[in-house]
Structure prediction request, 347 residues.
Amino acid sequence: MPVFHTHMLLVASVAVTAVAAPLAAQQSTQVQAAVDAAYSKYKGLKEGKNADYIPALAKVDPDVFGIAVVTPDGKVYTAGDLKTQVSIQSISKVFTMALVMNQQGPDKILNTIGADATGMRFNSIVSIEQSQKMLGGPEMNALVNPGAIAATSMVQGGKYDVVWGSILKFYSDFAGRDLTVLEDVFKSEAETNQRNQAIGALMLAYGYIKDNWQQAVDIYTRQCAVGVNAKDLAMMAATLANAGVNPVTKKQVMKAQDVPEVLAVMATAGLYDDSGKWLFRTGLPAKSGVGGGIIAVSPGKFGIAVISPPLDDAGNSVRAQKAIADISNALGGNPYAAKPALSTAAK
Ligand code: DON
Prediction:
């Protein structure tokens, strides 16, 4: 057995420090260079198509392309369009799930909705049947429509305005500014969301929703219509990357202890049917929305968001996936990619 000298301890601690160094310690220019490179590489890419099952989304300019990275020290790196707001859509599901966890603990989500991939489309009704009848319990997650509508129904407050007020305040605290609803998107989706109404009613029938499924579906529709730009989304992601503390306002928005469970569900189901492929390529917990946004979180290092409305067949923004993967890989963002400690590295 070798004697463990003090200098060995020193080497070991230096190695650990090097591995855990926050991104802020890297050159700011390196981060900005990665953002700029992805922006110019994908600026002209025309693949994908706007969502059109919500009529207002088909009208959004497909050329909108904005990138933002926010680090835990509050530095913001951007490229492209940061002004245009798109509807947050399914990215909202992360934050409503986080609100329920913050109010009632992560196990409430696990025991009521589940934390497993459904392997089906985000608005699948078959997934409800499968979760209930064949698997005998909550075998879905809060990032597909049935689970998300159930999560919205679980937000405390009872009355519509109280529940909605706490959802909007929670999202705004993550973003660090007062967010508002894009009323045209809300109206357009409210007029065409019969499928989500069917999901809400079925979730009530099977006991996932306790009462008033209509209110849950309406508030869910409203939360999906919240307007965000790329910087807002990156700030929300960075708050998750920073243990629930907004890096700019310094507000502890959610309990630090519940953030790992939020990220776990994002890693499992954040990009729907393509979550596995995404995790394979990047290792990052992430969430997409049919408005064209994607957020991703490198814990302790950065939050990143890209907005670009054209989607692939799975419903995920084409350019956002590519740009986030490039930037994160350039910055060593994959949390699974540990470096060996110097003292144990192969000679
Ligand atoms: O409920 C819906 O269909 C939309 N409000 C949200 C769907 C969504 O963003 C799925 N994302 N990839």
In short: The beta strands are 66-70, 76-80, 86-87, 227-228, 286-288, 293-298, 302-307.
